[in-house]
């Protein structure tokens, strides 16, 4: 509810002046006229107090539920649209920025499918999703002025949205699952996207069970097969040590004013220490033990994942978080080889550190963004690789350098438990993800079997 000021209305000369209060509920403007200004002001005060107390407003009359007469029609069952915003509110405060993004994306994807069969023709699907993502779901967006097409789309959804008991019916659950498996253009969504959105929807239904909207999670009753998720790393992305050295030389020739040189050590951290990009850009000088000779050590304490600024509390594109899959205060220690020690020492000597101690910074001391290190890496590949290699998946993304680093450790014979600890994985996930990157094991296995058969 967004109350406006009460203002006088005057008719023709000699007519009595009236006072009109205008307010907005769910994108629709309401008004009520009074003969006296005190009546209008009191009514406006009541509206504001109800909104401040978080009271629900009746969508038909636009009035707080507490002001409706006792013989007013019983409030209808909560709709999916109303529930979805309550679910967002419950999750929002403790959610990471990328989780907030994924949360609203999932709700905006399935909500147009969870509508009554007899609903009028729907607005454009893209407009519906934009209305939900940019004006309805996120708490900071709800008071924004709504363009006409957005207000109309939300009004249609409010009227068409299924009541929660109807949402639980298998046909409607299947419709929601089918919606999240398709892109806006109707083509199949990536398996990883479907898995992520399904997890959000499942969690939303679990919250509905908690609130006694459902007796059990309705997804469990639907036989629906999601697209197969390719969890294993493609061995063709793995770059070898010699090729990596060539890339670290080539990157120094990329860009003006030493742009590539500034990022050389960042790529080296992803390869030789298998850091995630968000961990690398957050690396502090105080996290590094860099002796003059021999092996060094990184003590990782945080990450700086990148997301849209509208999903962070600070309004920045980066928000400090703990390490992935670990409690907030937990650290991860990664021994680093002399080659990386030397690269980091040289980088600090040449570029210094940011004001907060970050090793990697832009020319103005800012946080290095994914677009910057992604563009420079693309140019580096073009310079260091053959045309066939450039066209191949080989180290196509900076994140593939982490995959290559982990694969190098595994193929060097480092025990899986130690590799998992350094990489920040569980052993189960490590072996599941990197199974196809462990090369040269067949001959060793065959030899061991031969030796056993000869006994």
UniProtKB/TrEMBL annotation:
<keyword id="KW-0238">DNA-binding</keyword>
<dbReference type="InterPro" id="IPR013762">
    <property type="entry name" value="Integrase-like_cat_sf"/>
</dbReference>
<dbReference type="InterPro" id="IPR010998">
    <property type="entry name" value="Integrase_recombinase_N"/>
</dbReference>
<dbReference type="InterPro" id="IPR050090">
    <property type="entry name" value="Tyrosine_recombinase_XerCD"/>
</dbReference>
<dbReference type="InterPro" id="IPR002104">
    <property type="entry name" value="Integrase_catalytic"/>
</dbReference>
<dbReference type="GO" id="GO:0006310">
    <property type="term" value="P:DNA recombination"/>
</dbReference>
<keyword id="KW-0233">DNA recombination</keyword>
<dbReference type="GO" id="GO:0015074">
    <property type="term" value="P:DNA integration"/>
</dbReference>
<comment type="similarity">
    <text>Belongs to the 'phage' integrase family.</text>
</comment>
<dbReference type="InterPro" id="IPR011010">
    <property type="entry name" value="DNA_brk_join_enz"/>
</dbReference>
<protein>
    <submittedName>
        <fullName>Site-specific integrase</fullName>
    </submittedName>
</protein>
<feature type="domain" description="Tyr recombinase">
    <location>
        <begin position="233"/>
        <end position="454"/>
    </location>
</feature>
<dbReference type="GO" id="GO:0003677">
    <property type="term" value="F:DNA binding"/>
</dbReference>
């Amino acid at each position: 509810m967004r109350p406006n000021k009460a203002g006088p209305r005057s008719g023709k000369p000699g007519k009595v002046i009236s006072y009109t209060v205008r307010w907005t509920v769910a994108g629709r403007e309401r008004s009520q006229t009074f003969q006296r200004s005190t009546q209008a002001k009191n009514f406006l005060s009541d509206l504001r107090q109800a909104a401040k107390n978080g009271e629900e407003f009746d969508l038909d009359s636009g009035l707080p539920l507490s002001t409706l007469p006792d013989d007013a029609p019983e409030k209808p069952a909560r709709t999916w649209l109303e529930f979805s915003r309550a679910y967002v509110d419950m999750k929002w405060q403790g959610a990471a920025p990328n989780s907030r993004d994924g949360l609203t994306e999932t709700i905006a994807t399935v909500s147009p499918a969870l509508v009554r069969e007899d609903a009028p023709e729907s607005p454009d699907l893209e407009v519906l999703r934009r209305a939900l993502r940019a004006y309805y779901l996120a708490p900071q967006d709800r008071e924004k002025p709504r363009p006409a097409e957005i207000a109309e789309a939300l009004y249609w959804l409010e009227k068409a949205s299924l009541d929660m008991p109807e949402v639980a019916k298998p046909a409607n659950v299947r419709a929601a699952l089918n919606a999240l498996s398709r892109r806006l253009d109707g083509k199949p969504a990536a398996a990883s996207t479907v898995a992520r959105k399904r997890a959000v929807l499942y969690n939303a239904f679990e919250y509905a069970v908690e609130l006694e909207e459902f007796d059990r999670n309705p997804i469990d009753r639907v036989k629906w097969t999601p697209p197969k998720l390719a969890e294993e790393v493609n061995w063709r992305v793995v770059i070898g040590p010699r090729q990596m050295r060539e890339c670290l030389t080539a990157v120094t020739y990329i860009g003006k004013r030493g742009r590539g040189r500034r990022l050389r050590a960042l790529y080296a951290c992803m390869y030789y220490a298998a850091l995630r990009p968000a961990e690398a850009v957050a690396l502090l000088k105080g996290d590094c033990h860099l002796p003059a000779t021999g092996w060094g050590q990184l003590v990782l304490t945080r990450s700086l994942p990148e997301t849209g600024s509208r999903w962070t509390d600070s309004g920045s594109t980066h928000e400090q978080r703990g390490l992935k899959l670990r409690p907030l205060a937990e650290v991860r220690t990664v021994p680093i080889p002399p080659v990386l020690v030397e690269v980091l020492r040289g980088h600090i000597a040449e570029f210094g550190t940011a004001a907060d101690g970050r090793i990697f910074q832009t020319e103005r001391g800012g946080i290095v963004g994914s677009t910057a290190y992604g563009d420079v890496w693309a140019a580096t590949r073009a310079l260091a690789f053959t045309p066939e290699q450039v066209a191949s998946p080989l180290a196509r993304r900076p994140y593939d350098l982490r995959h290559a680093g982990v694969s190098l450790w595994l193929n060097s014979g480092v025990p899986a438990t130690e590799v998992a600890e350094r990489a920040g994985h569980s052993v189960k996930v490590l072996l599941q993800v990197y199974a196809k990157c462990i090369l040269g094991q067949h001959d060793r296995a065959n030899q061991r079997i031969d030796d056993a058969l000869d006994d």
